[in-house]
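ok here's Thiamine diphosphokinase:
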Amino acid sequence: MEINIVAGGPDRYIPELNKYCSDEVKWVGVDRGVYTLLEQKIAPHIAFGDFDSVNMEEWELIQQKVREVNRYQPEKDETDLELAMNWAIDQKPAKISIFGATGGRLDHFMGNLQLLMTPKLLEARIKVEMIDVQNQLSLAEPGEHNVEKSPELQYISFVPVTENVDGITLTGFKYPLKNRNISRGSTLCISNELIQSSGTFSFSNGILMVIRSSD
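and the structure:
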């Protein structure tokens, strides 16, 4: 099973969601993201939020179309997306994909990034991606990882999440590296490209954020 979560970010950053549909996927709507799913003719399995970003007509449609709606007061300790993420982690999916979590307010975006680094998610060892129309973001743990060249996402950046990431080696890239250590705040591994059909990146310690982007 996989879980796709659609948050309430600006519609212009959200890709066509139907291409991410399959029989293995459960869709989760978060606040206005529930209405976004309904607009794209996708029925959410469950919904979370205070729904302060929808009008009365949209809220009535959500109540009609979604079987399980978890509505909260706006004054709460967790964001709507964090509540949805906690539920998703408890379902033990093979993968979580998050849409509608980028663009718009920077505080929301930074908070959403932090959700990828919570102990609960890291301990669950669930593959998680954050996707918008221009970017695909994920976390990588130590080891060797294969990466395929993509005409849509030609740029690849590696950003340290932990204080230090040790032994980074990049093979098959325009700017190769061999056994380099980088620390949080470094821009050494920003905006690289594959020069062959596939390549590898590896490291021995720490956590990397891997960002694939288009122009």
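+1. The longest strand covers residues 164-171.
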